[in-house]
């Protein structure tokens, strides 16, 4: 019941040319750097002398991979996964990577995203006698590749990928190759990196940095990269590609030290704050950000408006996950366990509070209340994303439409409900402007998914009428 949209997964893969090198320690550290993308389960599959071994478990990377478990697998290539469930239940059966062993070899698949036609494909496969061990849509991908494998890896991948719809960033391990694939709209991120004697695939560039690698480039929408001992092959499997990268990655999901599709996440957040300052400045004594992603934006807002920037809210990094199902009162109390106010900073001041997004509204309401209790004279909320009014179908956990507080409430009604003195959201145009950067202008044209803000999705979605065709 967190008051934020949740990223579903992170993937990380390593391939060393030297068969005696061990990729597993690097995958472990890569997954630690992607922990923010999923905290429910973690897994690593590695290939050693043509045999794939996998270890998966429920919990954080550090909890699942004790020294003992880590010592049980090794291999010169491997893939890892961190998961937060959006499709399929939160259980060990759905933890990834998924491994399939069959007559011609074995594969392990790590998937970030959600297939919009998983039910149909699953039914077709079940009718053809294929068995499933989980409720995850990612297992559909494994079974499709396995079914087509006799045609050769490249053909099996293209046939599989042509069949599936939705969002996917894939890291696939075979007996002798590491494969990366990004859906035709590039909704979820996936990048390629290099490390001494090897290659890396990662959901975010921060994970490549963390293991001492070097970012080479992002995979293009609709691109497959096959890395084997002799070469790195790249081909585009889809004729029709249109970039529609998830705009929310920059607002909230990604780590600020990542660069996605040529746009640095930290810079985009600072620019969003500057644009908010231009679009909806208010007379105030202090601007503060809701940690962590609100802080760069608050700095940008302060710079644009001349409002002094300060730290007014402290976030406890150690609250972690909770497996109890608290009632509303306990849940609201948990917000003050997570966030506390520095009273001396805000007392007697007119405060601008910058947040990355408002989803259910519970956190914002509580923050306004504790700021006022600490003596803030006024609290003006400014939000770095447009109102979230629609669900996401592409690998992000969104509450039911009825629980999205911006769905059906005007900004004025929302402001009153949060108890704030004023409230403003960045415009859709402003958000897109924040995603422009000098390096991006040199690359292929940018394009973003804005579905949860506008209801216009890059792929037709069953039950939704909005489809941004161009
Ligand atoms: S609908 Fe929203 S959260 Fe989902 S991919 Fe699009 S921008 Fe991202």
Number of helices: 17
Average predicted local confidence, pLDDT: 90
CATH superfamily of the largest domain: Aminohydrolase, N-terminal nucleophile (Ntn) domain
Query: How many beta strands in the DSSP annotation?
Result: 25
Q: State the end-to-end distance.
A: 35 Å
CATH topology of the largest domain: Glutamine Phosphoribosylpyrophosphate, subunit 1, domain 1
Low-confidence stretches: 321-326
Which range best describes the helical content: under 10%, 10-25%, 25-40%, 40-55%, 55-70% or over 70%? 25-40%
Identify the quaternary structure here: single chain
Which class of secondary structure composition applies to the elements? alpha+beta
CATH class annotation of the largest domain: Alpha Beta
Report strand order across the widest sheet: 4-3-5-2-11-10-12
Which sheet architecture does the biggest sheet show?
7 strands, antiparallel
Give me the Rg, rounded: 22 Å
- Total discrete domains: 2
Strand content: 15-25%
Shape: globular
Question: Which molecules other than protein and nucleic acid are bound?
Answer: iron/sulfur cluster
CATH architecture of the largest domain: 4-Layer Sandwich
């Amino acid at each position: 019941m967190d008051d934020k949209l949740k990223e579903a997964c992170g993937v990380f893969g390593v391939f060393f040319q030297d068969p005696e090198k061990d990729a597993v320690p690097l995958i472990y550290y890569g997954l630690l750097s992607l922990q923010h993308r999923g905290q429910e389960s973690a897994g690593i599959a590695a290939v050693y002398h043509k045999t794939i071994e996998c270890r998966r478990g429920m919990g954080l990377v550090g909890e699942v991979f004790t020294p003992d478990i880590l010592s049980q697998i090794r291999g010169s290539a491997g893939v890892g996964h961190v998961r937060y469930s959006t499709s399929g239940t939160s259980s060990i059966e759905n933890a990834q990577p998924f491994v399939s062993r069959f007559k011609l070899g074995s594969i392990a698949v790590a998937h970030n995203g959600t297939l919009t036609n998983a039910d149909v494909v699953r039914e077709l496969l079940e009718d053809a006698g294929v068995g499933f061990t989980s409720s995850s849509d990612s297992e559909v991908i494994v079974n499709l590749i396995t079914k087509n494998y006799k045609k050769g890896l490249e053909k099996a991948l293209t046939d599989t990928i042509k069949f599936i719809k939705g969002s996917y960033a894939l890291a696939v391990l075979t007996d002798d190759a590491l494969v990366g694939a990004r859906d035709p709209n590039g909704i979820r991120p996936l990048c390629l990196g290099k490390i001494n004697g090897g290659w890396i695939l990662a959901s975010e560039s921060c994970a490549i940095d963390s293991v001492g690698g070097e970012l080479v480039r992002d995979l293009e929408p609709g691109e497959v990269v096959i890395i084997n001992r002799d070469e790195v092959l790249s081909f585009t499997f889809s004729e029709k590609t249109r970039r529609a990268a998830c705009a929310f990655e920059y607002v909230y999901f990604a780590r600020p030290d990542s660069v996605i599709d040529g746009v640095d996440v930290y810079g985009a957040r600072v620019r969003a704050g500057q644009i908010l300052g231009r679009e909806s400045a208010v007379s105030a004594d202090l601007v503060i950000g809701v940690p962590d992603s609100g802080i760069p934006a608050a700095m940008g807002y302060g710079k644009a408006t001349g409002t002094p920037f300060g730290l007014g809210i402290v976030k406890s990094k150690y609250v972690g996950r909770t497996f109890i199902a608290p009632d509303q009162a306990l849940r609201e109390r948990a917000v003050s366990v997570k966030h506390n106010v520095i009273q001396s900073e805000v007392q007697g001041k007119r405060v601008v509070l910058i947040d990355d997004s408002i989803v259910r509204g519970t956190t914002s309401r509580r923050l306004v209340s504790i700021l006022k209790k600490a003596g803030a004279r006024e609290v003006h909320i400014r939000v770095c994303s447009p109102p979230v009014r629609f669900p996401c179908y592409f690998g992000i956990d969104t509450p039911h439409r009825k629980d999205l507080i911006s769905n059906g409430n005007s900004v004025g009604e929302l402001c009153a409900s949060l108890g704030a003195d004023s409230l403003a959201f960045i415009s859709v145009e402003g958000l897109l402007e924040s995603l422009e950067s000098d390096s991006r202008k040199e690359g292929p044209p940018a394009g973003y998914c804005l579905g949860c803000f506008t209801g216009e999705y890059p792929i037709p979605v069953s039950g939704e009428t909005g489809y941004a065709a161009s």
